[in-house]
Amino acid sequence: MSDTKNWDIFFYETFEEEEQELRRYLNARIKAGFTKQTIQESGHARPPASFISIRTQSLLPEAWGRQLKAILSRSTGYNHLLAYRNQTQTTAELGYLPLYCNRAVAEQALTLWMNLLRKLPRQIEQFRQFNRDGLSGYECAAKNLLVVGVGNIGHEVVRIGRGMDMQVQGVDIVKRFDDVEYVDIDSGIKEADVIVCAMNLTPQNRGYFNYQVLKKAKPGVIFINIARGELSPAVDLLRLIEEGHLGGLALDVFDEESALAVHLRNGEPARHPAVIATLKLADKPNVIFTPHNAFNTIEATRRKSEQSARQVEQMMETGGFIWPIPEK
Fold it and tell me: In this protein, which residues make up the domain named D-isomer specific 2-hydroxyacid dehydrogenase NAD-binding (predicted)?
């Protein structure tokens, strides 16, 4: 892989199945380069193309803002692109994929809270002794589910929770859906048995699920984050787990995720307090971590690749995206 080829577009952070699907959907005339690495892992000193595509772990160099014509983030979130535009004043067109993985991510949330309610990691561990001691779990029916952030993904979580006969409430500043019972965070969190974070990340809500907020929940509450890691500080989560206030914790996204991923992939020393706290949490029996993989179903990967190809072709033909990021 070279950074001197005449690519029309260069894709960072592509896992094997995704690259296969992207090649299938992209027009054959488009010259595309691929790497599984992030920008920082690639060591590229300059953009390999004037049009690049990333996910959420790549750190966009400030100097690239003057060299790029377009950036496509293959993600439902776009705060990283908005921050980059504000930081660099880049005139590059910025696009994202708001629709491809709503069901996939919502089902991952369900998978995680059910694993914690039924103590599945301990069940698997104790199979070798065929020991049932300490394995009594809980059913979903009649439990209180609080979904914080009721956008496209959050609404799918609400629907799934109802399908499991849970009592579901939602928290959001924008009340988009008529079929959701909305509450404020202070009243909702006090009654919740399971809390799912499905919020968009903004400068205003960074660190939203901190120690003080989650301490308002009743002891034994289960907390799930399938949105953005910056919303739930790892140091605070570690404290809540060690105090026994959280009954279970499951994350698919992580505080300082880029640094965590580099540490785990490349063995670089863990120095950031958030990374150190995350590694400590990973050893707890009531904690489940997955590698930012909630989007990754066969169906969603196909939708993602097809929608990415549409975005790329629209940009190359018209100079604009089908789904540009919002102005603010």
Answer: 111-294
**Residue 312 lies in domain:** 9-100+298-318
Give the CATH number for residue 45.
Answer: 3.40.50.720
- Domain check: are 89 and 146 in the same one? no
Q: Is 182 left (phi over 0), alpha (psi -120 to 50) or beta?
A: beta
